[in-house]
Structure formats: C-alpha cells, structure tokens
Amino acid sequence: MDYQYQAGFGNQFLSEALPGALPKVQNTPQHPPYGLYSEELNGSSFTAPRDRNLRTWLYKIHPATMQGASVPYKGNPDLISNFFDPSNTQVTASQLKWSPFEVPSDRKIDFIDGIKTICGAGEPTLASGLAIHVYTSTSNMDNKAFINSDGDFLILPQLGALDIQTEFGKLLIQPNEFCVIPRGIHFKVNFTETPEHQYRGYILEVFGGHFELPDLGPIGANGLANPRDFLYPVACYEHIENVEYKIIQKFQGELFETTKKHSPFDVVSWHGNYLPYKYDFSKFCPVGSVLFGHLDPSTFTVLTCKSNTPGTAIADFIMFPPRYISAENTFMPPPFHRNCMSEFVVSLLSSSDYGKSSFSPGTALLDHNMVPHGPESKEIEAEMTRKTDQVVRIPDGNAIVMFESMFQLRTTKWAMNVSNMINKNTHGHWNDIKIRFDPKNININS
C-alpha cells in the first residue's frame, strides 16, 4: 500500500479523497457534496484560546449516530484506567523491572484485546492522570474498531509494524516510530506480516490535556523534534454496507461495545487540526554537552503533556537516540538519582545506551519518584577507565524511551502478579558497587 502524508505539527490541514468533496467557505452547507453528512469533532472546548483550540470537520457517508446501543465488553479485563481502585492495583516503593512481555502463541489476540495495563495514576472522569500499557498481539482487528473517550494514545511498536486505519486516513508505524491517536477518533490496527506473527509495543495514555512540542528556551528555534517531521494522514474512505462492524469504546475506564452496519472509516473529506499523526525517531535532533558535564534528560524530550504547574508535566515523552558523547572528564552514564518525577523506561530496539547489557529490547523499568536509582556496578567500572578525551558514538539501532510524570504511579496486579515477567531482584546489581572513599587521598582516581 502507498501511504501518503501531510507534514507539520499542529497545522490546519485539509484533505479530500474525491475531487470537490470538501465544502467551500462554510462547514455545514445544506447539501454537502456527494450527499455526505457534516460532523464536527472537538478536542477542546469551544471557547479554548485560539492557539489551543482543536477541532476537525468531517464529511461522512454515515453520521456517527448510526449504531446500536452500547453494552459492556468482556473481551479485555486487564485494561485499567482507575488507579484509585485497590482491587486492580497495588503499591510498592521498590524499583521494578519487567523482562519482555510474552506474546501468546496459542491463540489469536488482536490489538485491543492484547492491551494490558502496567501502571498509572488518577482516573479519566476528572481528566487527570495517565496510564502505561503494553500490547502483545497476534492477529488483525478485521471488522472491529476502537474509540477512546478517556485519553490520547501514544503508541510505540517494539516488535512488528502497525498498519493503522483511522477516520482521517492510514498510518504505517514501524519500530523506531510512534503515533498519537487523540481521544474520540475511531481506529483499528492491523499488522504487517512477520514470520512469527508476534507483535509487541507500549502505550502512553494521558487523561488530561494533549501532547505538544516542548518549549525550547535557550536552545532556540530549532532542534529536538522539529515540527516539519510530524506526518498526518490524507483522506481515505471505505464504503462498506450490510456488514457487522464491532465498535469497542473505552469510557470512564470501562469497555463497551456496539455495532454498526457499515464501516466507520467512511470519511471522504475533512479539514482541521485535531488529527492522528506519526513521527520517525531518526529525525530527532539531539542536543548535548560539547565540553563537559551531563545534561538533564529533559533535553531529549520529544513531546510533552503539560500540567497547570509551569515546567511540570503530566507526561514527558523522552527518547535517547544514537548520538555522539564528547564531554571531557565527565562520568557519562545517567548519575545516581532521586527524582520528584516518576520514570518509566523502555528499551525498544537495543540495549547499548551506556552499556546497559541487562536492558534487552522489550524490557521495561519503573523508577518511582524519590526512589534511588543509577548505573550498575559493571557500568561504573567500565566508565572509570574510559578515556574521556575521545568521542563516543551511541550506535545506530539504539532506541530507549522514557515516560516521565509528576504523578506517583500505582502498578496493576496483572503487572505484578499475573504477567510473570517481573524481575524478583532488581537491587543485586547495586550491592557489589566498589567503595572508593579514601580520606587520605583526594586524587584517588586522577
């Protein structure tokens, strides 16, 4: 399939799959072209400031109201959104590490049924909080679509590529790319064929606000994730009648299902700025120290979902890409740290960032706020003998990402007890750290 895109983060776009399908001048003509129906999708309140007002007009074959009644959906009990509920979650103050979550090999599981929640905070009815999920899937969604009323999905494939069909068009998401599907948009996920028919990835869901580019401050007008590199779909409609299309909706943390007698992907034209989009990590322009010192991980922020507190995020989405390290006389692995923010780290493609050999692709790590963490003993020993006047290259193929949040994160009982992927001893690699202190020698390592 030939995927076509439009470029530019947050732009006002327009697209039509048939010539003249987009009404001229007004949004709601009495007779839209081709006998279509006008429908507005709002991602912000009507009176939001102009620079934060999100909406798109869609011109559809069927109004969205043409569907049956909603009933509870029982296909996935492990997709959690209420982190105040102790029946689904539990608390631990320890650092947590999960080996790559297993993809079932004995049954077919589509994208939605394969989503399992790992941790999160808050709940969606007050538009406050977030959730972090993993998906492990083996089959396409076929005549099935998903719509999330609770939050925006940031989807990161780690194993296998995603062929995502949305109301606005199609997106192909490869490993080393991600996409964002804002709340309220129908989409379905099919998978590009792999010999193993196994697909795995992670999802960051935010209940309040939307993702945006971070402020660059003294960096200036350019750098990090540049707006021109974010890609949006073009209109691509599907006109299918007399079928049973199952629609799964997440609402207030619960799943419901309804049916349509047609495809929900019947949007022939649209215009606006509330849309799904994708990004390729290879386009990220990192910023780093060029003489000495270790800059904070915030310098690697790709997107942020801001809170009401300036400089503090509901979620920062951070990526540690291939890059050069050129800081003299500097200990370059991430230093020992206690952070007021929670950190969830995922190895997507490689384990080679600063020699984290125990961090294989698919592995996930949760550092709770104010819980100490830092490099392993073998990383320390390797770093102590590195010649810091020589440039180091973090190689291509490396992709480690981090979700950082102001919230304290509660883990689900599925992640702690059912998944069987949690590492029992995450502290052993710190217990053998060499103590170098010598009060008689100030220059012990010089």
Question: Would you kindly provide a written description of the structure presented here, covering whatever features stand out?
Answer:
- This protein has about 450 residues and is mainly beta.
- It folds into 2 domains: about 5-10 and about 65-265 and about 275-280, Jelly Rolls (Sandwich); about 285-410, Jelly Rolls, CATH 2.60.120.
- Helix content is about 5%, strand content about 35%.
- It is built from 3 helices and 29 strands.
- The chain has helices at about 375-385, 415-420, 430, and strands spanning about 5, 15, 35-40, 55-60, 70, 90, 95-100, 115-125, 130-135, 145-150, 150-160, 160-165, 170-175, 175-180, 185-190, 200-205, 230-235, 240-250, 255-260, 265-270, 275-280, 300-305, 315-320, 325, 340-345, 365, 390-395, 400-405, 410.
- Strands 6-29-8-9-16-11-14-21 form an 8-stranded antiparallel beta sheet. Strands 7-26-25-28-23-22 form a 6-stranded antiparallel beta sheet, with no helix packed on it.
- The termini are far apart.
- The relative contact order is 0.19.
- The model has no long low-confidence stretch (mean pLDDT about 95).
List its traits.
single chain, 446 residues, mainly beta, 29 strands, 8-stranded antiparallel sheet, Jelly Rolls, globular, 2 domains, 3 helices
Quick overview of this protein structure:
The protein has 446 residues and is mainly beta. It has two domains: 5-12 and 64-263 and 273-281, Jelly Rolls; 287-409, Jelly Rolls (Sandwich). The protein has helices spanning 377-384, 413-418, 428-431; strands spanning 5-7, 13-16, 37-42, 55-60, 71-72, 89-90, 96-98, 115-123, 128-137, 144-148, 152-159, 162-166, 169-173, 177-181, 187-191, 199-206, 231-233, 241-251, 254-262, 267-272, 277-280, 301-306, 313-320, 323-325, 342-347, 364-367, 392-394, 400-405, 410-412.
